[in-house]
């Protein structure tokens, strides 16, 4: 029934495995933070951001994914602030777009699980699925920017 009121706003994106594998040698955001003496490019930040998103997608539980996103936001902000990156062209990653895509997914998930007296676990699975979809979309968008 929820589909009748809300147009399709997203879904699983096909992730190219070779693109995911290209991040295997990429330093994570903590490694970038540790390189205080070197200048860090937006390209390096994007690649590390994609690596971090990929790591979060591998997590199995809702709490881990939420914790991973919060840590990612903190590390990303620290890297950008520490390197005094002024991003007038919005080239650097930010979680704000992910959060905007996540809002309708959560609302749809709540709407679909509320009318029925579902178990809490079903609701948590719906939220986890919504998070994963939003993260996959975010990863796809930033992968496209670097390729």
Q: Output mean pLDDT.
A: 79
Strand content: under 5%
Order of helices and strands: HHHHHHH
Radius of gyration: 17 Å
Distance between the termini: 39 Å
Largest sheet: none
Based on Cα principal axes, name the global outline. Answer: elongated
State the total count of DSSP E strands.
Answer: 0
Q: What is the share of helical residues?
A: 55-70%
Broad structural category: mainly alpha
Number of helical regions: 7
Low-confidence stretches: 1-10
Relevant terms:
147 residues, mainly alpha, 7 helices, 0% strand
Topology:
Blueprint: H1 2-5, H2 17-21, H3 29-34, H4 42-57, H5 62-82, H6 96-113, H7 120-146
Helix pairs in contact: 4-5, 4-7, 6-7
Structural features, described:
There is one protein chain. With 147 residues, the chain is mainly alpha-helical. Helix content is 66%, strand content 0%. The protein contains 7 helices and no strands. The chain has helices at residues 2-5, 17-21, 29-34, 42-57, 62-82, 96-113, 120-146. α4 runs antiparallel to α5 (62-82). The N and C termini lie far apart (39 Å). Mean pLDDT is 79; it is low at 1-10.
